[in-house]
Specification:
By secondary structure, this protein is mainly α. The chain has 1 helix and no strands. The radius of gyration is 34 Å and the shape is rod-shaped.
Amino acid sequence: MKSRLIFVIGVLVTVCTILLTIGSYVKMKAQIENDLNNEIRGVASGYNAVLSNWIQTNLAMVDSLAQGLGTALICRRASP
């Protein structure tokens, strides 16, 4: 009887330990996935802002160059 009780208690302790370990693993995994997702979104947003700024700067330079060339061509045609 005593050995059976010790066996049952051992099994209960083992099962509780396994359940707590699985619960902790699932919770930690979800937290890590959430943190990684937030980090990736932050990096992507940063790259998006930098890329948008780069595109706007290049568009402004091309517009300025086009206007400058257009003015130069108009002045050249108007000269005798």
